[in-house]
Amino acid sequence: MASTEEIRSSLAEIVNEIAGIPVEDVQLDKSFTDDLDVDSLSMVEVVVAAEEKFTVKIPDDEVKNLKTVGDAVAFIERAQNG
Amino acid sequence: MSKTRVVITGLGATTPLGGDVSSTWEGLLAGRSGAKRLTADWVENLAVQIAAPAAVEPTDVLERVKARRLDRNAQFAVVAAREAWADAGLADAGLDLERLGVAVASGIGGLHTTLANYDALKVNPRRVSPLAIPMLMPNSAAAYVSLEFGAKAGVHTPVSACASGTEAIALALDQIRLGRADVVLAGGTEGSIHPLPLAAFGQMMALSKRNDEPEKASRPWDVDRDGFLLGEGAGILVLESYEHAVARGAKIYAELAGAGISADGHDIAQPDPTGSGARRAMERALAEGDLTAADIFHINAHATSTPQGDIAESLAIRQALGKEADHAIATAPKSMIGHLLGAAGAVESVATVLALHHRVSPPTINLDKLDDRIELDVATEQRKLPDGDIAALNNSFGFGGHNAALAFKTV
User: Fold this and answer.
1) Which domain holds residue A56?
2) Residue B123: which residues within 8 A CB-CB, separation 6 or more?
């Protein structure tokens, strides 16, 4: 299984591609909206790209709970292990 | 009641001849063609394999993240609007943004986005972009131009096929004369070089099939013309009340004296062969601008290089100007840049304004033998325009029977 750091790093590349945020800024404690300025439409793009990248399903209802990069990484880890 | 005077204080363009106004203008004066044989895989089965693509890819100019949120259609508009904004010196003008309007038209809108997302949908609906609607809606380009500069007066997108760009400028003139705005970014944009429009316009028999000689395909008024050449790009003009322009010491290229709008009421695709709708548009533009036929020395014709359209327009010009048409030089930029659909009238308004400003008519190329039904003085080399107060017309007509004419004059 991918490590936490591997997931964070891949997710950072997705966020960079979609929203132009430098990959080094995409750290576990960062809020997508407050710190990284990822708007709600871009967040949908990030979620869809993450689903394809990590072969997981992220239900629409779950997206609102993914406030920080760490929340998203943890969700992906659980989904991959589940 | 005297009309508010409206002047042009900034120009922006990205076209098949260049990524800005100066390169486009140089290309027009030099009689250079922007036509190319297309090389993409998808052209193979098409009857029409030529077009006039933009000389500069908008994605090479715009910031990467910005570009990916904009359809090609809006990308061109933002590129041209940034140039017009800078040219007019608006960044440091202390503008009241609630008095800044936008009128940016498109004939087709976000076509690439629409079709790419339909392809994605067929694979998996989850792959449809959450940005698809904001990118494909016809007002997307106007909206993104307004966001670029924070415009808070009206933001408009008139849609009238190939008359759209000209109609947007007419609408902008109205907004200033009605007192709704002091400054309006006005023009049109189009990014529709894609197999679907090439096939669809081709099925209408509207496009030139001169695949082996793309640079000779667009030949307005020539006996051997066989249809138009599809182009892409954008043109944006800064329209401003004369009073506002003078108060901030802006440079003034020309004045937009009047606009004329009419409809043929004849057919969805064919022009009225008598040219009466086009004639009325020109007559109204002159009347609104307090001009007469004697004032017109330069005509930027719609002249798309279709067998019927070019003749109907020539008739209309003769009817509108009468004998005074003898001293007006007719020019057809579409011979060089092709037909930019909803952007055509805007890019050609930029050319018309520069023709008055520099007092020179650009040439019309590929005119080897003038169709003897065309009664116009066409310049095949660039020609000097006279000194003194002179005026020019810019015509645009669109499928649906839309006619729009603008009357510009020297200041």
Assistant:
1) 4-81
2) none
